Amino acid sequence: MTDMFSIIQIIISLVLVVLILLQNNEAGMGAAFGGDDGGPTRTRRGPEKVVFIATIVVAIIYVITSLVALLS
User: Fold this and answer.
1) Residue 49 placed within a domain
2) Which residue, among 45, 60, 65, 53, has the nearest Cα to 19 in the 3D structure?
3) Taking the complete model, does pTM exceed 0.90, yes or no?
4) DSSP secondary-structure letter at 41?
């Protein structure tokens, strides 16, 4: 049973990494160190929104499977 959870977690983690890498980041490295340009905020639309929501869902599924594997 624990082998099954391990395989599921590996697959989910790979999907999560791919989804995170697919997200568009306009801020660049400057914003990571406080160098925000003060531009207007942008709303997510279309495929960008789908990838964003899918990332959240997969992250929640990963946490749930981690907790189930920990408790079993």
Assistant:
1) yes
2) 53
3) no
4) P
Determine the pLDDT at residue 55: 95
CA distance 13 to 67: 14
**Six token digits for residue 4:** 């099954």
In total, how many domains does the chain have?
1
Q: Is residue 51 part of a domain?
A: yes
Give domain status of residue 15, yes or no: yes
Q: What share of the chain is helix, strand, coil (3-state, %, to 5)?
A: 70, 0, 30
Instruction: Decide if 69 contacts 3 (C-beta within 8 A).
Output: no
Instruction: Let me know: does 13 contact 65? Beta carbons within 8 Å.
Output: no
Residue 26 has pLDDT above 70, yes or no: no
